[in-house]
Amino acid sequence: MGTTASQLRKDLLSEYQELTFLTKQEIILAHKRFSELLSKEDRNVPTPRVPMEKVLSLPELKSNPFRKRICHVFSTSDMKDGSLTFEDFLDLLSAFSDPATLEIKSHYAFRIFDFDDDGTLDGGDLEKLVNCLTGETDDTRLTTEEMRQLISNILEESDIDKDGTVNLSEFQHVISRSPDFVSSFKIVL
Amino acid sequence: EKVGEEKPEVLSPEELEKLKEEVDERKKLISTLRGKPWPMRKKLESHEFVEKYEGALGKGKSRKLYAYKVMMLKKWMKFQRDFENFKTACVPWEMKIKEIESKYVSYLFLLYPCTVLLVLPGCLLFFNLAEKALMGRPYGSMPRKTVPRADEANAMDFAVLWDFGGYAQYSVLFYGYYNSQRAIGWLKFRMPLSYFLVGVGTVAYSYMVVIRTMARNANEDGGGDNNSFNFSWKMFTSWDYLIGNPETADNKFASITTSFKEAILEEQESRKDDNIHLTRFLRVLANFLVLCCLAGSGYLIYFVVRRSQKFALEGLESHSWWERNEVNMVMSLLGMFCPMLFDVISALENYHPRIALQWQLGRIFALFLGNLYTFIIALMDEINLKREEEEVLKLNMTIWEASLYNGTLGVNSTAPPITVHPADIPRGPCWETMVGQEFVRLIVSDTMTTYITLLIGDFLRAVLVRFLNYCWCWDLEAGFPSYSEFDVSGNVLGLIFNQGMIWMGAFYAPCLPALNVLRLHVSMYLQCWAVMCCNVPQERVFKASGSNNFYMAMLLVILFLSTLPAIYTIVTIPPSFDCGPFSGKSRMFDVIQETLESDFPAWFGKVFSYASNPGLVLPFLLLMVLAIYYLQSTSKSYKQANLELKKKLQTVSRTINKVLTLIQHLLYSLFMSSYLSSPLGGEHRAHQGKSNHQIPPSATSPPAPRGHRIPGPLPGNQWQPAPSVQRVPNSQRH
After folding, report:
1. Which of A15, A140, A154 sits opposite B254 (nearest CB)?
2. Domain boundaries in chain A?
3. Range list of H helices, B469-538
4. Predicted-complex ipTM score
């Protein structure tokens, strides 16, 4: 990034355009929104990082049940604290943009759903996933019996090689058949 | 990976060659870089590598061509990027759609017909302009372009214009205005030919667009071998990431929970099947009631159209506004109330909501279709009436002409032509203009009904619910009537039918598509406003089918069914003798014959006549039918092969699992037996029980690096020989 946070260098702008699915206007808007999240001290740092709490305050992410996972997946921080640089932020927006390919979206979706980061979706991941989707309050959660039934149904459908987990290729196979995925896996600033 | 930092002049030719190859490879990679799930840093590094060495390779006299190529490539990519930016800026209403999407489920069907709708009026406007501005004769110069003397008095009245009579009738809006002269102006613009070709061309283009969209959707579907991923899809794809509103998010959570619970229940209940006879009887009863409704509405429309013909004969002024607009009002009202009736009847049937939705849409479809066709049949009767009138008028024309000369001339002598003002010449009843007028009126009344329903049904209702809630006994917002939901499928159906009516009437009222574009713009803004301020999202969102192809298929059927009547009239009914671009011909398509004879060389006409010989056309049609049958059967066999492969994959992996666990057990027992029979073994038989618990046949996968790992032949199940080996040092410690 440039030395002043208020400007994005022209050559970087065109490189970002080539390397992501975003248009020029979208990158400039992203830069503006990112700069708003920075605190005063961070503005003059060469590659500033926005802490996860600030990112989660964005209106586009506030209501998303997977917001913490999204930050962790796109963060390149060594401390694994979910903080994002501007380039991470662009990666995020690019993966969630409209022209992004199915491969990219399904790849990142898999990583977001992989709560324990072990490369496959096992029963524990699926259970956490369902709990995220059914909301935070206790009366909307599923009972243990329903949960067990649901997870066994899902594994029966998606687990092609019957190893008890859903790996990336099985996940991509299921997702590629879904008509809703590409249109629902979108975030626009 | 990276070649050293030496200056390029120092590199030997082979090294230079290798570098070039590597740069080219990297360049290929770059075009796909944005599709790679790498963090930005890594992508930037790859990019930098290419840039650095590309620049270096460009130096030196013999590399000029290479540098030039690189520069052109860069410029081309920049142009592509700018064009893409420009395209996104051009999509109309993009910000509005994004705003709505954040509140509602994203559903972008509207954009598909946009392209069709925008091209059609483009074509039709073009040749309309050609007629009027470039070379046509202006208003008032010909009888077909002038209001008859008798009607002149009230030609500008609003009531008459609203009815599309008066000046509107004799304008470019309708078929009757156009001149039938073969070649107009100094450009020799072939008016009748172009009218015909544009009419046919727009229909062909519409077919192409619809079918191409369907093919694309079918491709994305992935062959449709297996649609039974219901639970997985609910799990992985049900959350809409565009939701930014906490209220909508809560709604979404609730609906997801409900859908999970329902799906689980349904799966359990699908095993048991009680009281099937009652259900069957109720369903038959419901279908019978629906058929009665459809028949009733068809008869009503027919009756009303006949009555309106009677009114027209008696003169329109002697009737009230209702009686004059009866047909359109009745059709619109039926379109509004019958679907509600179908909804109530479908409560008898007790279907799964998605199936019930499909039945509902099918019935509304049948209703609209029935109504439209009844309308057209009634219109046919009117056309016949008008043609009879025309015959009578033709007879009277000769008498009238004779009277002009006042009997001063004999039968065969010539005389200086007497100039008569075009408004005074008696006019034939132009049946084509009448058809165009009917369709335009229908669409206008349909629009009015939609807007009024929107204002009353949505806006007024929302206002009442909001303000009366303070002084009402029960909670208006939660119970009845509450805010109206945004009914996606109903609106899409309405759009489809509107488009069908346009296709039907476009040949006889050329400016109809242009009017429709205007109407769509207004509808769009009105609907956007209503959606954001008065509607709530649907509580349970059921899509009518897995893909968008359901609505596309309906559009295709409507396209076919609406162009049918137009084609029928073109082919069978002779055009009017004094109005429109085909006046005087015996059939409208004779214009093609004429053009072939006069504008093309003789051999072309011969070839064409051979090609249109039934002896050639029939075998060709047969060939196409056979080709379709062949493609159908190959596609079925591919689907079958797909399923077989999947089953094979499952059995193979299951077998391998079994074999591996077997080997694991075998090795372990071998080890144990060899260990126990050794001198040390005797002391440790006590520990045997403990060590038994240490066997983890790891069915779950070991920790693997995040994400970038390519799954091996047995994804997720990696047999680890480690546990059995580790036990040796363990036991030796004692």
Report:
1. A140
2. 12-96, 102-185
3. 488-505, 512-534
4. 0.88
